Task: structure prediction
Amino acid sequence: MGSELLRAAVIGSGFVGPFHVDAVRRGGIGEVVIVAGSNRERTAAKAAGLGVRGTTNLDDIFDDATIDVVHVCTPNWSHVELATRALQAGKHVIVEKPLALTLEDARGLADLARQKQLHGLVAFTYRGYPMVRRARQLVADGELGGLRLVHGHYLQDWLSQETDYNWRLEPRAGASRAVADVGSHWFDTAQYITGSRITTVLADLATFLPVRQRPLQETEAFVEATGVREAVEIGSEDAATILVRFEDGARGAAVLSQVSPGRKNAFGLEIAGSDASLAWEQERPESLWIGTRDESRGLVRQPAPVRHGLQSLPSGHPEGWAEAMRDLLRDFYGAIVDGLPPAEAAEAGIYPTLDDGARAVALVEAVMESARTDAWATSA
Ligand code: SOE
Result:
Protein backbone atom coordinates (compact mmCIF):
# COMPACT_ATOMS: atom_id res chain seq x y z
CA MET A 1 0.00 0.00 0.00
CA GLY A 2 1.74 3.22 -1.08
CA SER A 3 0.55 6.72 -0.37
CA GLU A 4 -2.63 6.22 -2.41
CA LEU A 5 -5.93 6.28 -0.59
CA LEU A 6 -7.68 3.11 0.52
CA ARG A 7 -10.79 2.56 -1.62
CA ALA A 8 -14.05 1.96 0.26
CA ALA A 9 -17.63 0.94 -0.39
CA VAL A 10 -20.55 1.75 1.89
CA ILE A 11 -23.56 -0.56 1.85
CA GLY A 12 -26.63 1.15 3.28
CA SER A 13 -27.76 4.71 2.61
CA GLY A 14 -30.04 5.29 5.60
CA PHE A 15 -29.18 7.45 8.63
CA VAL A 16 -25.62 6.34 9.33
CA GLY A 17 -24.22 5.35 5.92
CA PRO A 18 -23.62 8.93 4.72
CA PHE A 19 -21.82 9.69 8.01
CA HIS A 20 -19.44 6.82 7.29
CA VAL A 21 -18.74 8.40 3.88
CA ASP A 22 -18.06 11.74 5.56
CA ALA A 23 -15.84 10.14 8.22
CA VAL A 24 -13.72 8.26 5.67
CA ARG A 25 -13.22 11.39 3.59
CA ARG A 26 -12.31 13.58 6.55
CA GLY A 27 -9.97 10.93 7.92
CA GLY A 28 -7.83 11.66 4.92
CA ILE A 29 -6.59 8.14 4.15
CA GLY A 30 -9.57 6.65 2.39
CA GLU A 31 -11.97 7.46 -0.40
CA VAL A 32 -15.48 6.09 -0.80
CA VAL A 33 -15.96 5.08 -4.44
CA ILE A 34 -19.44 3.55 -4.30
CA VAL A 35 -22.57 3.50 -2.12
CA ALA A 36 -25.07 0.64 -2.33
CA GLY A 37 -28.73 0.59 -1.31
CA SER A 38 -31.87 -1.46 -1.86
CA ASN A 39 -34.02 1.19 -3.50
CA ARG A 40 -32.80 2.35 -6.93
CA GLU A 41 -34.19 5.89 -6.82
CA ARG A 42 -33.29 6.62 -3.19
CA THR A 43 -29.79 5.16 -3.61
CA ALA A 44 -29.18 7.15 -6.79
CA ALA A 45 -30.24 10.35 -5.05
CA LYS A 46 -28.11 9.69 -1.93
CA ALA A 47 -25.07 8.70 -4.05
CA ALA A 48 -25.42 11.78 -6.24
CA GLY A 49 -25.64 13.96 -3.14
CA LEU A 50 -22.45 12.33 -1.83
CA GLY A 51 -20.68 12.63 -5.19
CA VAL A 52 -20.06 8.90 -5.54
CA ARG A 53 -21.34 6.08 -7.73
CA GLY A 54 -24.55 4.37 -6.57
CA THR A 55 -25.66 0.79 -7.11
CA THR A 56 -28.28 -1.74 -6.05
CA ASN A 57 -26.12 -4.62 -7.32
CA LEU A 58 -23.76 -5.77 -4.54
CA ASP A 59 -21.61 -7.67 -7.04
CA ASP A 60 -20.39 -4.20 -8.09
CA ILE A 61 -18.68 -4.15 -4.68
CA PHE A 62 -17.74 -7.71 -3.80
CA ASP A 63 -16.41 -8.47 -7.30
CA ASP A 64 -14.38 -5.25 -7.50
CA ALA A 65 -10.80 -6.19 -6.55
CA THR A 66 -9.85 -2.50 -6.24
CA ILE A 67 -12.11 -2.03 -3.19
CA ASP A 68 -10.14 -2.47 0.06
CA VAL A 69 -12.76 -1.80 2.75
CA VAL A 70 -16.51 -2.51 2.92
CA HIS A 71 -18.74 -0.65 5.39
CA VAL A 72 -21.93 -2.53 6.36
CA CYS A 73 -24.47 0.15 7.35
CA THR A 74 -27.65 -1.83 6.76
CA PRO A 75 -30.37 -3.10 9.11
CA ASN A 76 -29.22 -5.68 11.67
CA TRP A 77 -30.56 -8.76 9.88
CA SER A 78 -28.19 -8.38 6.91
CA HIS A 79 -24.94 -7.69 8.80
CA VAL A 80 -23.70 -11.29 8.87
CA GLU A 81 -24.41 -12.08 5.20
CA LEU A 82 -22.80 -8.87 3.93
CA ALA A 83 -19.77 -8.95 6.25
CA THR A 84 -19.19 -12.60 5.35
CA ARG A 85 -19.26 -11.79 1.61
CA ALA A 86 -16.82 -8.92 2.16
CA LEU A 87 -14.35 -11.04 4.17
CA GLN A 88 -14.66 -13.96 1.71
CA ALA A 89 -13.83 -11.44 -1.05
CA GLY A 90 -10.65 -10.47 0.86
CA LYS A 91 -11.89 -7.06 1.98
CA HIS A 92 -11.48 -5.45 5.39
CA VAL A 93 -14.86 -4.81 6.98
CA ILE A 94 -16.57 -2.21 9.14
CA VAL A 95 -19.94 -3.28 10.59
CA GLU A 96 -22.52 -1.16 12.39
CA LYS A 97 -23.62 -2.46 15.78
CA PRO A 98 -25.03 -4.81 16.82
CA LEU A 99 -22.57 -6.98 14.91
CA ALA A 100 -25.05 -9.88 14.59
CA LEU A 101 -28.35 -11.13 15.92
CA THR A 102 -26.79 -14.12 17.69
CA LEU A 103 -23.52 -14.69 19.56
CA GLU A 104 -22.75 -17.68 17.36
CA ASP A 105 -22.96 -15.56 14.21
CA ALA A 106 -20.97 -12.74 15.80
CA ARG A 107 -18.18 -15.09 16.83
CA GLY A 108 -18.28 -16.69 13.38
CA LEU A 109 -17.53 -13.32 11.76
CA ALA A 110 -14.68 -12.64 14.18
CA ASP A 111 -13.20 -16.07 13.45
CA LEU A 112 -13.53 -15.58 9.66
CA ALA A 113 -11.70 -12.22 9.83
CA ARG A 114 -8.96 -13.87 11.92
CA GLN A 115 -8.67 -16.74 9.47
CA LYS A 116 -8.45 -14.32 6.52
CA GLN A 117 -6.05 -12.03 8.46
CA LEU A 118 -8.31 -9.07 7.67
CA HIS A 119 -9.16 -6.06 9.82
CA GLY A 120 -12.72 -5.86 11.18
CA LEU A 121 -14.24 -2.98 13.17
CA VAL A 122 -17.63 -2.64 14.89
CA ALA A 123 -18.83 0.98 14.85
CA PHE A 124 -18.80 1.70 18.57
CA THR A 125 -18.65 5.39 17.69
CA TYR A 126 -18.31 6.70 21.22
CA ARG A 127 -14.79 5.25 21.58
CA GLY A 128 -13.79 7.89 19.05
CA TYR A 129 -14.46 10.81 21.39
CA PRO A 130 -11.22 12.32 22.75
CA MET A 131 -12.68 12.71 26.26
CA VAL A 132 -13.76 9.05 26.32
CA ARG A 133 -10.16 8.18 25.44
CA ARG A 134 -8.94 10.63 28.12
CA ALA A 135 -11.25 8.93 30.67
CA ARG A 136 -9.80 5.55 29.74
CA GLN A 137 -6.28 6.90 30.24
CA LEU A 138 -7.16 8.43 33.63
CA VAL A 139 -8.48 5.05 34.83
CA ALA A 140 -5.46 3.20 33.41
CA ASP A 141 -3.11 5.69 35.14
CA GLY A 142 -4.80 4.92 38.49
CA GLU A 143 -6.18 8.46 38.90
CA LEU A 144 -9.50 7.09 40.24
CA GLY A 145 -8.00 4.34 42.40
CA GLY A 146 -9.80 1.01 42.61
CA LEU A 147 -13.09 1.11 40.69
CA ARG A 148 -16.28 0.71 42.71
CA LEU A 149 -19.35 1.97 40.79
CA VAL A 150 -20.08 2.41 37.06
CA HIS A 151 -23.48 3.83 36.26
CA GLY A 152 -25.29 5.85 33.66
CA HIS A 153 -27.89 6.05 31.00
CA TYR A 154 -28.58 6.14 27.30
CA LEU A 155 -31.88 8.02 26.77
CA GLN A 156 -33.60 8.94 23.51
CA ASP A 157 -37.11 10.01 22.56
CA TRP A 158 -37.31 9.23 18.84
CA LEU A 159 -39.55 6.20 19.50
CA SER A 160 -41.58 7.68 22.35
CA GLN A 161 -44.88 7.98 20.47
CA GLU A 162 -47.18 5.30 19.08
CA THR A 163 -46.73 6.71 15.57
CA ASP A 164 -42.92 6.50 15.74
CA TYR A 165 -41.66 3.58 13.67
CA ASN A 166 -38.37 2.25 12.25
CA TRP A 167 -36.92 -1.00 10.91
CA ARG A 168 -35.49 -1.64 14.40
CA LEU A 169 -39.06 -2.45 15.51
CA GLU A 170 -39.40 -5.25 12.93
CA PRO A 171 -39.23 -8.76 14.46
CA ARG A 172 -36.46 -9.66 11.96
CA ALA A 173 -34.28 -6.91 13.55
CA GLY A 174 -33.89 -9.16 16.58
CA ALA A 175 -35.60 -9.93 19.89
CA SER A 176 -33.89 -6.97 21.59
CA ARG A 177 -34.15 -3.34 20.39
CA ALA A 178 -33.19 -0.64 22.94
CA VAL A 179 -30.56 -2.88 24.55
CA ALA A 180 -29.11 -4.15 21.26
CA ASP A 181 -29.20 -0.68 19.69
CA VAL A 182 -28.02 1.75 22.38
CA GLY A 183 -27.26 -0.63 25.23
CA SER A 184 -24.48 -2.13 23.11
CA HIS A 185 -22.85 1.33 23.00
CA TRP A 186 -23.22 1.72 26.77
CA PHE A 187 -21.74 -1.72 27.51
CA ASP A 188 -18.82 -1.26 25.12
CA THR A 189 -17.95 2.25 26.25
CA ALA A 190 -18.19 1.34 29.96
CA GLN A 191 -15.85 -1.61 29.38
CA TYR A 192 -13.53 0.49 27.20
CA ILE A 193 -13.12 3.25 29.82
CA THR A 194 -12.79 0.91 32.80
CA GLY A 195 -10.67 -1.70 31.05
CA SER A 196 -12.86 -4.26 32.84
CA ARG A 197 -15.47 -6.60 31.38
CA ILE A 198 -19.09 -6.82 32.47
CA THR A 199 -19.62 -10.45 33.55
CA THR A 200 -23.17 -10.67 34.97
CA VAL A 201 -26.38 -8.68 34.56
CA LEU A 202 -29.82 -8.44 36.18
CA ALA A 203 -32.25 -6.88 33.72
CA ASP A 204 -35.82 -5.63 33.65
CA LEU A 205 -37.22 -4.80 30.20
CA ALA A 206 -40.32 -2.74 29.39
CA THR A 207 -42.42 -2.34 26.26
CA PHE A 208 -44.52 0.74 27.05
CA LEU A 209 -46.00 0.87 23.54
CA PRO A 210 -47.12 -2.72 22.75
CA VAL A 211 -48.99 -1.50 19.67
CA ARG A 212 -47.58 1.01 17.18
CA GLN A 213 -48.94 2.59 14.01
CA ARG A 214 -46.55 1.36 11.30
CA PRO A 215 -46.41 3.56 8.18
CA LEU A 216 -46.72 1.68 4.92
CA GLN A 217 -43.70 3.66 3.60
CA GLU A 218 -40.14 2.88 4.81
CA THR A 219 -38.55 5.34 7.28
CA GLU A 220 -35.02 6.17 8.56
CA ALA A 221 -33.94 6.68 12.16
CA PHE A 222 -34.92 10.12 13.49
CA VAL A 223 -37.07 10.80 10.40
CA GLU A 224 -40.82 11.48 10.93
CA ALA A 225 -42.89 9.18 8.68
CA THR A 226 -46.04 10.30 6.88
CA GLY A 227 -48.86 8.55 5.01
CA VAL A 228 -51.12 5.60 5.68
CA ARG A 229 -50.43 3.44 8.77
CA GLU A 230 -51.47 0.06 10.16
CA ALA A 231 -51.54 -1.10 13.80
CA VAL A 232 -48.84 -3.66 14.63
CA GLU A 233 -47.98 -5.47 17.85
CA ILE A 234 -44.47 -4.82 19.24
CA GLY A 235 -42.48 -7.44 21.18
CA SER A 236 -39.10 -5.72 21.61
CA GLU A 237 -38.25 -3.50 24.56
CA ASP A 238 -38.64 0.30 24.61
CA ALA A 239 -36.50 0.57 27.74
CA ALA A 240 -34.40 -1.42 30.17
CA THR A 241 -33.08 -1.01 33.71
CA ILE A 242 -30.03 -3.19 34.21
CA LEU A 243 -27.72 -3.95 37.14
CA VAL A 244 -24.20 -4.95 36.06
CA ARG A 245 -21.19 -6.56 37.74
CA PHE A 246 -17.64 -6.17 36.37
CA GLU A 247 -14.86 -8.75 36.45
CA ASP A 248 -12.74 -6.48 38.69
CA GLY A 249 -15.51 -6.32 41.33
CA ALA A 250 -17.04 -2.98 40.37
CA ARG A 251 -20.85 -2.80 40.38
CA GLY A 252 -23.14 -0.63 38.31
CA ALA A 253 -26.46 0.22 36.73
CA ALA A 254 -27.72 1.46 33.38
CA VAL A 255 -31.02 2.99 32.34
CA LEU A 256 -31.62 2.56 28.60
CA SER A 257 -34.61 4.13 26.86
CA GLN A 258 -35.83 5.16 23.43
CA VAL A 259 -39.07 6.56 24.87
CA SER A 260 -37.85 9.39 27.16
CA PRO A 261 -39.39 12.65 25.89
CA GLY A 262 -36.86 15.46 25.60
CA ARG A 263 -33.82 13.21 25.66
CA LYS A 264 -32.26 13.06 22.17
CA ASN A 265 -29.01 11.12 22.46
CA ALA A 266 -28.34 11.43 26.17
CA PHE A 267 -25.59 8.89 26.74
CA GLY A 268 -23.86 9.39 30.09
CA LEU A 269 -21.42 7.47 32.24
CA GLU A 270 -20.15 8.06 35.79
CA ILE A 271 -17.40 6.03 37.46
CA ALA A 272 -16.57 6.16 41.18
CA GLY A 273 -13.19 4.88 42.35
CA SER A 274 -11.63 4.78 45.79
CA ASP A 275 -9.85 8.10 45.21
CA ALA A 276 -11.86 9.99 42.59
CA SER A 277 -14.92 9.95 40.33
CA LEU A 278 -15.33 10.95 36.71
CA ALA A 279 -18.39 11.67 34.59
CA TRP A 280 -18.94 12.21 30.86
CA GLU A 281 -22.06 13.22 28.90
CA GLN A 282 -22.18 12.61 25.13
CA GLU A 283 -24.28 15.71 24.53
CA ARG A 284 -21.49 17.79 26.17
CA PRO A 285 -18.59 15.70 24.81
CA GLU A 286 -15.77 18.25 25.05
CA SER A 287 -15.49 18.10 28.83
CA LEU A 288 -14.99 15.54 31.58
CA TRP A 289 -15.89 16.05 35.26
CA ILE A 290 -13.42 14.83 37.87
CA GLY A 291 -14.30 14.86 41.58
CA THR A 292 -12.46 14.03 44.82
CA ARG A 293 -13.22 14.66 48.50
CA ASP A 294 -11.34 17.95 48.25
CA GLU A 295 -12.31 19.37 44.86
CA SER A 296 -14.17 18.97 41.60
CA ARG A 297 -12.79 20.12 38.26
CA GLY A 298 -13.60 20.03 34.59
CA LEU A 299 -11.14 18.82 31.98
CA VAL A 300 -11.50 20.15 28.44
CA ARG A 301 -10.55 18.49 25.18
CA GLN A 302 -7.02 19.05 23.92
CA PRO A 303 -6.35 18.51 20.19
CA ALA A 304 -5.61 14.85 19.46
CA PRO A 305 -2.09 14.11 18.15
CA VAL A 306 -1.74 14.63 14.39
CA ARG A 307 -2.24 11.23 12.76
CA HIS A 308 -1.64 10.51 9.09
CA GLY A 309 -1.32 14.18 8.41
CA LEU A 310 -4.69 15.19 9.82
CA GLN A 311 -5.13 17.31 12.90
CA SER A 312 -8.13 17.87 15.16
CA LEU A 313 -9.68 21.24 15.81
CA PRO A 314 -8.04 23.31 18.57
CA SER A 315 -9.68 23.43 22.02
CA GLY A 316 -12.72 25.67 22.11
CA HIS A 317 -13.72 24.67 18.58
CA PRO A 318 -16.28 22.00 19.48
CA GLU A 319 -15.88 18.58 17.93
CA GLY A 320 -18.83 16.21 18.08
CA TRP A 321 -20.32 12.95 16.95
CA ALA A 322 -19.16 13.23 13.31
CA GLU A 323 -15.57 13.82 14.46
CA ALA A 324 -15.79 10.85 16.85
CA MET A 325 -16.77 8.68 13.87
CA ARG A 326 -13.93 10.28 11.83
CA ASP A 327 -11.34 9.48 14.51
CA LEU A 328 -12.66 5.96 15.08
CA LEU A 329 -12.40 5.11 11.38
CA ARG A 330 -9.10 6.97 10.94
CA ASP A 331 -7.47 4.61 13.47
CA PHE A 332 -8.83 1.62 11.51
CA TYR A 333 -7.72 2.89 8.11
CA GLY A 334 -4.41 3.93 9.62
CA ALA A 335 -3.76 0.40 10.91
CA ILE A 336 -4.32 -0.93 7.37
CA VAL A 337 -2.16 1.75 5.70
CA ASP A 338 0.59 1.18 8.28
CA GLY A 339 0.55 -2.54 7.54
CA LEU A 340 -0.26 -3.41 11.17
CA PRO A 341 -1.39 -7.06 11.38
CA PRO A 342 -5.00 -7.34 12.70
CA ALA A 343 -3.88 -9.41 15.70
CA GLU A 344 -1.43 -6.66 16.73
CA ALA A 345 -4.09 -3.96 16.24
CA ALA A 346 -6.46 -5.95 18.47
CA GLU A 347 -3.76 -6.47 21.10
CA ALA A 348 -3.03 -2.73 21.11
CA GLY A 349 -6.73 -1.80 21.30
CA ILE A 350 -6.38 0.41 18.21
CA TYR A 351 -10.08 0.07 17.32
CA PRO A 352 -13.19 -1.92 18.43
CA THR A 353 -12.77 -5.35 16.86
CA LEU A 354 -15.30 -7.94 15.76
CA ASP A 355 -14.47 -9.76 19.03
CA ASP A 356 -15.53 -6.59 20.90
CA GLY A 357 -18.71 -6.67 18.83
CA ALA A 358 -19.30 -10.30 19.77
CA ARG A 359 -18.78 -9.42 23.44
CA ALA A 360 -21.56 -6.83 23.18
CA VAL A 361 -23.86 -9.40 21.54
CA ALA A 362 -23.08 -11.80 24.40
CA LEU A 363 -24.18 -9.13 26.88
CA VAL A 364 -27.42 -8.53 24.98
CA GLU A 365 -28.11 -12.27 25.12
CA ALA A 366 -27.38 -12.30 28.87
CA VAL A 367 -29.79 -9.37 29.34
CA MET A 368 -32.52 -11.24 27.45
CA GLU A 369 -31.87 -14.40 29.53
CA SER A 370 -32.01 -12.40 32.78
CA ALA A 371 -35.26 -10.72 31.75
CA ARG A 372 -36.77 -14.12 30.90
CA THR A 373 -35.71 -15.75 34.18
CA ASP A 374 -35.93 -12.76 36.54
CA ALA A 375 -32.46 -13.73 37.74
CA TRP A 376 -28.81 -12.72 37.31
CA ALA A 377 -27.34 -14.03 34.04
CA THR A 378 -23.68 -14.47 33.13
CA SER A 379 -22.37 -13.27 29.77
CA ALA A 380 -20.95 -16.08 27.64
C1 SOE B 1 -30.67 5.05 16.99
O1 SOE B 1 -30.88 4.63 18.30
C2 SOE B 1 -29.21 5.46 16.78
O2 SOE B 1 -29.05 5.86 15.44
C3 SOE B 1 -28.27 4.28 17.02
O3 SOE B 1 -28.53 3.20 16.13
C4 SOE B 1 -26.83 4.76 16.88
O4 SOE B 1 -25.92 3.69 17.08
C5 SOE B 1 -26.58 5.87 17.89
O5 SOE B 1 -25.24 6.33 17.80
C6 SOE B 1 -27.56 7.01 17.67
O6 SOE B 1 -28.92 6.53 17.68
Observations:
- Residues 93 and 120 are 5 Å apart (CA to CA).
